[in-house]
């Protein structure tokens, strides 16, 4: 059986809210999704890839729009092995510099230190709720919806 995961990550990958802001955001998410299996927040030392799992349809170059499926997986592995130094890549398709976070993912995916998540959220959050969460965290949040 598959399960669903809702992730909310800052627009700015390195952004890290303080503990009280993180707690308030988690508590608010818990209050709007009372039927979720688990709601939590985590702060990682390094940027981690927050992806839509089986939902991921496409990864594309942000410069020329070409499909990045051929090289992107290797670039991600390289980042996992070598860390920050491998976060910026030169696209093989058109030779432009971008970060792994700057690639186009469909549906939304991204890199983050701070991750707010709800396991089996039962319903989607509204735009208003996301704006409220963004205010609590202090940074605009992106929504990543995953099937795991
Ligand atoms: Zn390109």
**Beta-strand residue percentage:** 25-35%
Number of E-type strands: 8
Radius of gyration: 16 Å
Record the strand order, biggest sheet.
2-7-1-8
Structure characteristics:
alpha+beta, 8 strands, binds zinc ion, two-stranded antiparallel sheet
Q: What this model shows, in words?
A:
It is a single chain. The chain has 148 residues and is of the alpha+beta class. The protein has one domain (4-147). It is built from 3 helices and 8 strands, in the order βαββαββββαβ. It has helices at residues 19-32, 69-82, 127-137; strands at 4-10, 38-50, 58-60, 88-90, 97-99, 104-106, 110-119, 141-147. A 4-stranded antiparallel sheet has the order 2-7-1-8. A two-stranded antiparallel sheet has the order 3-6. A two-stranded antiparallel ribbon has the order 4-5. α1 (19-32) runs antiparallel to α3. The chain is globular and about 45 Å long. The model has no long low-confidence stretch (mean pLDDT 96). The structure holds zinc ion (ZN). The site of zinc ion (ZN) has 7 residues, from loops. Zinc ion binds at residues 61, 63-64, 66, 91, 93-94.
